[in-house]
Amino acid sequence: VQLVESGGGSVQAGGSLRLSCTDSGFRMSGSDTGWYRQGPGNECTLVSSINSDGSRYYANSVKGRFTITRDNAKNTVYLQMNSLKSEDTGLYYCATGTDLASWGQGTQVTVS
Fold first, then answer.
1. Per-residue pLDDT tens for 7-25?
2. DSSP string, 30-43
3. What share of the chain is helix, strand, coil (3-state, %, to 5)?
């Protein structure tokens, strides 16, 4: 598994970003995939996940603002982030596989 995240950046509060997570060889549709955020204190929090059956999880802090989707044809999982807040700032990691044990390199999101 070699996950590659993209789409991070710097935005003002209220703005939007779409993160992407893809893998050139691993079939993501057959596994659960999640997005973690590493905050300033280096704590990692599961922000959202999508299971192989399509069921979704959202942390309370992002419900109604973030949407996770998967495009099986592109083997890509997306995290659409709207109405961004300063507390959404962090390094976002995509994780997949059994127990979400395989992680990408992360993409930085900064909301000011």
1. 999 999 999 999 999 998 8
2. GS-EEEEEE-TT--
3. 10, 50, 40
How far apart are the C-alpha atoms of 90 and 39, rounded to whole Å? 5
Whole-number Å distance between alpha carbons of 4 and 17 = 16
Locus of tokens 């399509």:
54
Tally the C-alpha atoms within 13 A of residue 100's C-alpha that lie toward its C-beta: 17
Q: Render pLDDT for 89-110 as a digit per residue (tens, 0 to 9).
A: 999 999 998 888 999 999 999 9
81: closest CA among 59, 54, 103, 55?
59
Give 100's DSSP letter.
G
